[in-house]
Structures are given as C-alpha cells and as structure tokens.
Amino acid sequence: MRNKNSFLFALIICQLILSAATLSCSKGEKWETYSASPKTGDGFTANLPQGFQQPTDDVGKRLLKEYGSVFVARGGAIAPTTVIFKDEQEVSAFQSSVQNSSERIGSFNLELQVAAIKALKEAAAEAKQSSLTITPRSADAAKRSYKETVELWASRVNPGLAHWTSKGKIQPSEANRIKSLSPFDQVPEIFKLESEGMYFSKDLSKSIIYSVAPPGTSQHLSMLALDVSENDDVKIREILAKHGWYQTVQSDLPHFTFLGVEENKLSSLGLKKVTDGGRTFWLPNF
Ligand SMILES: [Zn+2]
Known about the structure:
Blueprint: H1 2-25, H2 27-34, H3 43-46, H4 58-67, H5 88-97, E1 100-105, E2 108-113, H6 114-129, H7 146-166, H8 172-180, H9 183-195, E3 225-227, H10 234-242, E4 245-246, E5 255-258, E6 271-276, E7 279-284
Helix pairs in contact: 6-10
Bound molecules: zinc ion.
C-alpha cells in the first residue's frame, strides 16, 4: 500500500513537471514571449512597428502592398520602420541596430537576424529527419547590402532603358537623365514608364518589381528573408512554415520571409492567404 502511494505521488510530480515543461517549450509560447502578440481585429496597419512611417505616395503604397508582410513580423524579429531605405547609410544603421548571427548552411555563410536563423536551423534539422535539406540558393540568399540591391536594380533598368530607346519609345536624352538619378529617385520614373507600357522585368514583359526589388526595399536588407533552393518541394514549404518562415512575395518563388508566428495567427497580423500555383502566400490585407 505504501509503495503504491509513493508511486502515485511520483506519478503526479512527473505529470506536473511535464506540463510545466510543455508550457514553456511549445512553439507558440516561445514566440509570444519574444514580443507582443498580434493585435486582433485591427488589421495590417495596426500591427506595423511602432514609429512606422506610413507611405503617403503611390510608389510607397505599392511597395508596402507588394513586399510589406515583413513589417508585421513577430517572434523576436525586428522590422524596419520605413518601406524604402533611402541610401547605404540608412541600411547600415538598421542592420547594425538589430542582433544578427552568421551560420554556415549548405555551402554558404548566411547572415540573418538571430530569431530568424534560429528558426531556420530548427527547420533544417527537422528536414534532415526526413532526409531532406533546406539550402540557400546563392551567396546572397540571406542578408544583402544596399549596394547589392542597387546593382540588381541597375541590371534591369539599364538594359530596359537601352531596349526602349532602341525601339524609339524613349529619347536617348531622357534615358540618360533617368540613369543620372539616384537609385531612389529612379523608382518613380521607372514605374511611370511602366504605366505607359514600357516594362523593365528581365524579359521586358511585366513590371520590374516581379524581377527585382527597387533599391532599398528588399526584405533581404532586413535580414529576415532567405531564397531557398528546394522551394518547389511542398514538404520543405510545410517545414519552413512550421518554423515561422512563409512565402510573402507572390512573384518570387524561391523567396521566404521570417514572420515568426504560427500559421493560424497570420490573419490576425493583417495578412491574407493567397493560393497560387499550389503554393500559399501571405500578403498584406489592405
Ligand atoms: Zn529573396
């Protein structure tokens, strides 16, 4: 009898320890302790970071709609408070203000915000259990510098200007004027030409934003984005989502964004689910 009582007592203690451990270890709990929970019922705008500079111009609003999901990231992620970093200095100031960490994943060294890389490593470990891998697509698959986003932008703008000039759609002097502007000032000019049917994507058939992000707007500058080689594997997408990594740019298939919450919380951050080509994207709902 005495033995039975001790056994029951021990069992109860074990149960108590286990439930306490479950509470402090479950993912939802862990993510929420890092930062504020989503604000329910208030939508995307209410969930933007404190001090966020709401764009009032058409270019800014369009960019917020296309790339804006990252601004409501949680789970320890720090999002910028501006839609466009104007120059190298603004990017460096942001990048040095957040805690980041570097890890070798696949054959590249990746630099991301600490919470993002931690979740990525957990996702990679889970993938490994199913003999799968999560690897970066290139050396610039994670963090980028402002200069790199400027180079990518120019790699579309310059051939586009040459093409539309050769077609007689743009005067050479106008092309030169646009080339002489700062990358920041080129963005509205290129959008204006696109509104007249002159597109700047790689194949010149659609908007440049489906090809590259305008300088200073890439989620890679926030160190909360990763381009994944195995992006067409549904199992990999599921594992990444389980660890807070989602697709948020509909035109960019390898691109994943660390949002740091469970999928059932994304709509309360003001994001909407869009299914396209069998994939799930979470986009700003406004
Ligand atoms: Zn990307």
